[in-house]
Amino acid sequence: MLNQSFLPAKKIIDIIEKNGHKAYFVGGAVRDQFLDKKIGDIDITTSARPNEIQQFFEKVIPVGIEHGTVIVRYGKESYEVTTFRIEEGYSDFRHPDNVQFVDRIEDDLARRDFTINAIAMDTKGNFIDPYGGKSDIENKQISTVGNPVDRFQEDPLRIMRALRFCSQLGFSIDKNTKKAIVDNIASIEKVAIERIGIELEKMFIGTHISLASPLLIESNVDRYLPIFRDNYKFIKNLRDHSIPLGSMSEIVAMFHLYDQTISLEQWVNEWKLSNQIKRDANALVTAMYYYKKNGLDNWLVFTLPKHLFNGLVRLTSIFARGFELESEVLERMWSNLPIQTRNNLALNGIDVASIFPNLQKGPWIGQCLSHLEYQVVLGHLNNEQTELRKWVKDEVHPESLNRITRKE
Ligand code: ATP
Ligand code: MG
């Protein structure tokens, strides 16, 4: 019997089969159903070539057509559909040099990283499991498909993937696979840092990070990763880390808080992270400093973007033991804030400018609004037009604000 979660994706396979091709569910979704985990993205593997898939479906996005991968949009869902393939060489350590499409599912399964990820399932719920993936799942074990030394040399990213599956699933790493990790760890340096970052993030998010983090040290992975390799003092932080985090920005914020001499800028540059991650990491670090100095107040809740609340909570459980914050408390405080954004202020920039008609508009208006925001958020002023106007008239001296220019 097919698990309910696969029903919408079954339609894709039905259509491919009607067109005379084979197709199966494969990868993480098949693995996760054995573990009673929520099924995430459903990947499909097929004997049909990408150009054929483009003919079978109306909406097909050619994301990696040369490697055999397209995304099929069907209903409201997207499915990654990949042609059965084998791979040769990863000389740039990003993409296989050469992929060859093949007709047999067994050959496609052979190129996959771990046995637990190399199980295919048809639409009736029958499995094709030539490498003992099901038994490895039962034994909670991660082993490579085929010889681990060859498989890690082929694509050393698989080393990071082994650790991240260990963290996500709570599995141990098979003895031979682990030995091959230790013996081949130096090759990880050749892998594009962006790919490593994605796996590292998933690893730190994993529920069983306490199992995976000692492995980072035992297998010397840390000696080959940017920043960690030059800072042996991180060993203890890495080895003992046991709290699942929520995102790369949290991870970077945490390591910066462990050693503030390594700037966020350096983390972002060496790990080639996005500006969004940099902004979020910065907001988290700023919030941590503020919390340590001032404790919890409305201003902290107002200034920290809401999507980072849980991240701050987790960081306080590492860096503010005994003073850990709780998400519900932050959420409740946020709902009760007098204003939630600057736009909610009863005065806007035009109103402020009209209070000082002789002054040319300039940055002082924004600064004035910041003061108002602060007073209102902390409850020192009611968010009410007349009260705010009066306060601005009495208390604000635009001359003393920066960069004001007088009208001639
Ligand atoms: P997740 O739940 O995180 O999506 P996943 O197992 O689906 O886990 P993906 O990274 O989405 O992992 O990859 C999909 C499948 O492609 C894997 O299950 C595996 O079969 C194969 N795969 C992915 N990366 C590699 C790799 N570097 N080498 C070999 N096979 C890989
Ligand atoms: Mg996946």
Properties at a glance:
single chain, 408 residues, alpha+beta, Beta Polymerase, domain 2, Hydrophobic Seed Protein, 4 domains, 7-stranded mixed beta sheet, two-stranded antiparallel ribbon, 20 helices, 11 strands, elongated, disordered C terminus, binds adenosine-5'-triphosphate, binds magnesium ion
Question: What's a quick, concise take on this entry?
Answer:
This protein has helices spanning about 5-20, 30-35, 50-55, 105-110, 135-140, 150-155, 155-170, 175-185, 195-205, 210-220, 235-240, 250-260, 265-270, 275-295, 300-305, 310-320, 325-335, 350-355, 365-375, 385-395, and strands spanning about 25, 45, 60-65, 70-75, 75-85, 85-90, 100, 120, 125-130, 140, 170-175.
Describe the protein's architecture and organization:
By secondary structure, the protein is of the alpha+beta class. It has 4 domains: 139 residues, Beta Polymerase, domain 2; 104 residues, Hydrophobic Seed Protein (Orthogonal Bundle), CATH 1.10.110; 67 residues, no CATH class; 62 residues, Serum Albumin, Chain A, Domain 1 (Orthogonal Bundle), CATH 1.10.246.80. It has a 7-stranded mixed sheet. The chain has a two-stranded antiparallel ribbon with strand order 6-7. Strand 8 and strand 9 form a beta hairpin. Helix 12 packs across helix 14. It is elongated and about 80 Å long. 36% of the residues are buried. The C terminus is likely disordered. It binds adenosine-5'-triphosphate (ATP) and magnesium ion (MG). Adenosine-5'-triphosphate binds next to helix 7. Adenosine-5'-triphosphate (ATP) binds next to helix 7.
